[in-house]
Structure formats: structure tokens, C-alpha cells
Specification:
The complex is a heterodimer of chains A (about 180) and B (about 200). In chain A, about 75% of the residues lie in helices and about 0% in strands. Chain A is mainly alpha-helical and about 180 residues long. The chains are: A mainly alpha (about 180), B mainly alpha (about 200).
Chain lengths: ~180, ~200
């Protein structure tokens, strides 16, 4: 599927580099992943990429797992491991050092100011990505209703949210959504 | 620590929860992150907040907001960053590794098995239909978390914070300006406003 001498090295290089520019989470890097995997390296076709995306959303865990699946389809289990570690390792290390640095300078006022300033931005971004996902997932009034009911129940009650996901899945399976 | 049972006391709002009474060990970190990760269909944030703030009370709502905001703006997958920062805060580098391994390990195995099944059987139409239903509910859960994360701001009557929040939401969610440009403007602006308001409060 690919013409490169060492696919593992290509995976590590591609995702290691990509992770350092992926501000705002794995989902904001999806367009860039598509470009790298489909257009640049020809690891996957367009349809395969869409399927891999669907599987990564279907399986539990962080959204970054799409990288695992791309790695798997390029070079099997070794590729899956290499791609995942390359995508998570460097930024996890960076996060570790930044957080330790902030903790150490607890006495200083500026770390608290920076974090306080970032909180509303972070929540605003989450709300925006919620809206964007909702616009693609909620294509019918039943779908919108499921979203609203799930949001209300999760906010106001202590019901385990897994039940809401399960109910949504069953309705989807039955073809209602 | 019973994982699924709600806290015994009356469900007080999370913001008033006392600071962490108990320091999680390595195995506890691994298991907690494995559990929230395996429950995390359509995003782990919902489960991370539920486990860390509501069930284990390892952080207050405010501490969680600040830690997540930091991880949100560092590059890379933010829940992965959160696991490392959270784990290492309690147990150093080993804690960071334990939380990271719990978060990524088990779902990686599941995703790989699913990928192998897909390679074997190809068509995922039924799966996709089911997934569409799960996605609708998952988005609802995300909105609920966003609103819960707003509660500390609402309680403090933090008007400037709420205005910034709304502005980012409109710029990215409604107008669809590119993320980088919005952040390039919004981060310095929010910093300046925060510094100014703190000075005014002090004066």
C-alpha cells in the first residue's frame, strides 16, 4: 500500500511531528491526518479513512485512537504501537514538564493568572466543538431529541451516562435515528 | 472505593466538595483511568470529570477546570495530557505513566481487535447506524459537561469570563473562524483582561 522503505519510521515521524502542532485536541487534527494518510503517504483510500474514523469513534477510549488504527493498517500491531506512542509521547512529556514547572512556581502569581485566563477559552472551545459535532450527528428531530434528553439527564441526575449511550445505540440500531 | 455507587452524602454541588481527602496509588490511578477510558464512547472528558470530581473527589470542580484548560492548550491529545499531568501530580513520573497506560492501553487493544474484524468482514453499515445513535447521546453528554464546567464561573458571577467563553463559542462554533487565528487573538486578550480585573479587585 505504500512505497516507503520503512513504514514504521514514516509513521513515527508523521505523527510525532503532527502531535506537536495539534492544539485543541486530537479531533482538531483530523483534517491534517486525512491529508497525511490519504494524500501524502497513500496509506489509506478516502473510504478506508472514513471507516477508520467511524471505528475509532465506535471504540471506547480517547479519540486519538484513530492514529492506532491508521498505524495498524499500515504495519500491523507494530505500526499501531509506533503510531500511538509517537502521537502521545512527545506532548505528554511536554505537558509533564510544563505542569511541573507551574507547580514549582506556585508562589508566583502568573501561573494562576495564565490558568484562570485559559479556563473560559477552554470551555468555549468545548461548547463550540459540541455544536459542530451536533450539526453532523443530529440530522433528524429524533436525533436532536436524544441529544437534549441525554444532556438534561446527565446534567440533572446521577444516572450512569452509559445507559444514555446504550439507549442511543439501540435506537440507531433499530433505524429510528 | 466502590466505583459505581454514588457518594453517600446528599449530592451537594461539586464546587463545594472538600479538597482531595485521599491520595491515589499507582494501581488506583491505572484502574481509574482504564475505567473512564473504557466507558468513554465518543470522548473521555465526560468520564474523566465524573470520576475525578464527582466520584473520587480527587479534585474540586475549579481545580479540574484549571488542569484541563492547561492540557487543552498544550499541543497533543488533551485527555492524554490530562492523564499524565494528573497522575504525576500525585505520584511523580510513575504516576503519570500509570494513568497514561490505563487511559491508552486497554482501548488500544479493543480498537486493534475492531480494526482486525473490520479488515476481515469489511462492511460496517449496521455498526455505523448504531454509532450514529450513540453519537447523538454522546453529544448530549458533552453539553452537560460543558455546562457543569461553567458552574464555577456562574457561581463567582465571573462576567468577563462568561463573555470570553461566549465569544470563543460564537467565533468557532457559529462563524467557524479557524482555530489558530481565534486563539492567537483570544489568548492574549483573555490574559490581559484577567490581569486587569485582578488589579482592579485589589485596588
Amino acid at each position: 500500500m505504500n512505497s516507503e522503505a520503512n513504514p514504521i519510521a514514516a509513521l513515527v515521524w508523521t505523527f510525532g511531528l503532527m502531535s506537536l502542532f495539534a492544539v485543541g485536541g486530537a479531533n482538531s487534527a483530523i483534517p491534517e491526518m486525512h491529508r497525511a494518510a490519504v494524500d501524502v503517504h497513500h496509506w489509506l483510500t478516502d473510504k478506508q479513512f472514513a471507516d477508520v474514523f467511524a471505528i475509532s469513534q465506535l471504540s471506547p477510549g480517547p479519540n486519538v485512537l484513530i492514529v492506532t488504527l491508521i498505524g495498524y493498517s499500515v504495519a500491523g500491531v507494530a505500526g499501531a504501537l509506533a503510531a500511538t506512542v509517537a502521537m502521545c509521547g512527545p506532548t505528554a512529556l511536554l505537558a509533564y514538564y510544563v505542569s511541573r514547572f507551574l507547580d514549582r512556581s506556585r508562589g508566583a502569581r502568573w501561573p494562576a493568572i495564565i490558568q484562570a485566563a485559559l479556563v473560559p477559552l477552554s470551555i468555549g472551545l468545548m461548547a463550540a466543538s459540541g455544536l459542530i459535532v451536533a450539526q453532523t450527528s443530529d440530522q433528524s428531530w429524533i436525533a436532536v431529541l436524544i441529544t437534549i434528553v441525554a444532556a438534561a439527564l446527565a446534567f440533572a441526575t446521577r444516572i450512569n451516562p452509559l445507559w444514555m449511550l446504550l439507549a442511543g445505540g439501540l435506537l440507531g440500531f433499530a433505524g429510528v435515528v | 472505593m466502590p466505583p459505581e455507587s454514588p457518594p453517600v452524602a446528599a449530592p451537594a454541588p461539586d464546587a463545594s466538595a472538600p479538597s482531595p481527602p485521599h491520595q491515589p496509588g499507582l494501581l488506583e490511578l491505572f484502574l481509574a483511568f482504564a475505567k473512564m477510558s473504557l466507558a468513554g464512547f465518543g470522548g473521555v472528558l465526560v468520564w474523566a470529570r465524573r470520576a475525578i470530581v464527582e466520584q473520587h473527589r480527587w479534585m474540586t470542580a475549579e481545580e479540574f477546570n484549571e488542569t484541563f484548560a492547561l492540557c487543552h492548550f498544550l499541543p497533543g491529545p488533551n485527555i492524554v495530557n490530562l492523564s499524565v499531568v494528573f497522575g504525576s501530580r500525585f505520584r511523580g513520573i510513575a504516576g503519570g505513566f500509570a494513568a497514561f497506560a490505563g487511559l491508552v492501553g486497554p482501548p488500544m487493544v479493543i480498537a486493534t481487535i475492531l480494526a482486525a474484524l473490520y479488515a476481515r468482514y469489511g462492511d460496517v453499515d449496521v455498526l455505523r447506524r448504531t454509532l450514529a445513535g450513540v453519537a447523538c447521546a454522546a453529544v448530549g453528554l458533552l453539553f452537560a459537561v460543558v455546562f457543569k464546567m461553567m458552574l464555577p464561573l456562574l457561581k463567582r458571577r465571573d462576567v468577563t469570563g462568561l463573555v470570553i467563553l461566549a465569544a470563543v463559542f460564537v467565533a468557532i462554533g457559529l462563524i467557524r473562524w479557524p482555530l489558530q487565528i481565534v486563539l492567537l487573538v483570544a489568548i492574549p486578550l483573555s490574559l490581559a483582561i484577567t490581569i486587569l480585573t485582578r488589579r482592579m479587585v485589589k485596588a
